[in-house]
Specification:
The protein is mainly β. The chain is built from three helices and 29 strands.
Length: about 400
């Protein structure tokens, strides 16, 4: 599911893209790039180079007349629906893919906006541009035109719907008042919104009682018990300085949250980099666990699911290539739920790119084992096409945990 967490994630992606442009003259077959963090020194990683093969390419950019497509979410259980947005024509367009119908642009490419999340029944949410403003919308069941969602009295003209529960009943998003929740009624319309508080939601639980996301520069978890209350998730392990954190996704059991935190470089404390992390619920406490990278811990975690008794997190991590820079790879981390064990080393998701670029990112993962992400085709920030990978029946744990 897409996050509102542009605060951490976009800082990281911006650095990555800038590094790609700087390194695009490389003659390496993998399209190497210089990691800003690696160039200045930071915490070591230790990942593996074993790979999970690419399953399929979801769309041909030429057929849709797009320069690039960014998938943002995949349906949680079956993994048979993907949403996102494409750089097509004069603006961004709502992108959808279903196993039954394949890729499409909502409204045939006439609807400018972004799709942020999708439920198992096809209900998708996001924002569309209306008279120059960005308005939150829902497409119930995934068919028909976008339906604008109501706003709170006194709200400004802009808003966004950023998350949907797995059954499509609850929608979470933002208006100028803060984080809000819409609820589907018996007639199929959505009532509200109900004000949650200061949060940009990334995910909402099946019962609509828990919302995770980011408040300012902090990862948060909001719970409704009569009224809404907030828990600020721990950012440091042992008192180390942290610039901020974001919560991106939570598994169906509700005991693992995936996200990122921004850290200062040891060699240049004025420069930040993003580190992938998870929070695990141990008793009544949310315990922070940084996820390991390859030669360095730089990256981000974007989604998390329960999978055949294990927990699977997807995102991206840098792999250094001494003298040439490095590659930002889509990766998967797994944990077999043994309390004393940590998440395994990252496993790389393979990229097949005729253009020679080896980088990409993983945006979502389903309980069926399908992962969706993007393969970069050049150093241009809006390039790339959506691809999927399929996990093996047993979640891999390369190198042990």
């Amino acid at each position: 599911m897409t996050s509102n967490a542009e605060s951490i994630a976009l800082r990281f992606i911006g650095l990555a893209l800038a590094a790609m442009v700087a390194g695009c003259g490389s003659d390496s077959a993998t399209g190497t790039m210089e990691s800003p963090a690696l160039a200045k020194g930071g915490k070591p990683g230790g990942g593996t180079t074993t790979t999970i093969p690419q399953e399929m390419k979801l769309s041909n950019l030429r057929d849709l007349k797009c320069s690039g497509i960014m998938p943002t979410a995949i349906s949680r259980v079956a993994g048979d629906r993907v949403v996102g947005y494409g750089w097509c024509g004069s603006g961004t367009q709502l992108f959808t893919w279903t196993e039954a119908a394949g890729p499409a642009l909502v409204g045939g490419g006439s609807t400018e906006g972004m799709a942020n999340d999708v439920a198992g029944d096809g209900t998708l949410v996001g924002h569309v541009r209306v008279s120059g403003n960005l308005r939150p919308f829902v497409i119930p069941g995934g068919s028909g035109p976008p339906v604008l969602l109501p706003m709170l009295p006194g709200d400004g003209p802009n808003g966004d719907a950023t998350a949907v529960s797995d059954d499509g009943r609850y929608l979470a998003g933002t208006t100028s008042s803060g984080g809000v929740l819409w609820t589907r009624q018996s007639d199929g319309t959505y009532s509200g919104p109900e004000l949650i508080g200061s949060v940009g939601p990334s995910a909402v639980s099946l019962d609509g009682q828990v919302v995770i996301g980011t408040s300012g520069d902090r990862a948060v978890r909001w719970v409704k018990q009569g009224s809404w209350s907030v828990t600020y998730l721990k950012q440091d392990v042992a008192g180390e300085p942290v610039y901020g954190s974001s919560a991106e996704a939570v598994n169906a059991r509700g005991d693992v949250i995936a996200g990122s935190r921004a850290l200062p470089l040891d060699a240049d404390p004025g420069t930040q980099y993003s580190e992938p992390v998870v929070w695990r619920l141990v008793g009544t406490e949310w315990v922070l666990e940084p996820l390991r990278g390859f030669t360095f811990s730089e990256g981000g975690s974007q989604d998390v699911v329960d999978y055949h008794g294990s927990v699977v997190v997807v995102g991206e991590a840098w792999e250094d290539d001494p003298g040439k820079g490095g590659v930002l790879w889509p990766v998967v981390w797994t944990w077999d739920r043994t309390p004393a064990k940590a998440f395994c080393l990252p496993q790389r998701l393979a990229i097949i790119s005729k253009q020679g670029w080896g980088g990409g990112s993983a945006a979502g993962v389903s309980e069926s084992g399908r992962i969706v992400g993007r393969a970069w085709t050049s150093s241009v920030s809006n390039s790339g096409y959506p691809v999927t990978w399929r996990l093996p029946a047993t979640a891999p744990c390369p190198g042990g945990s």
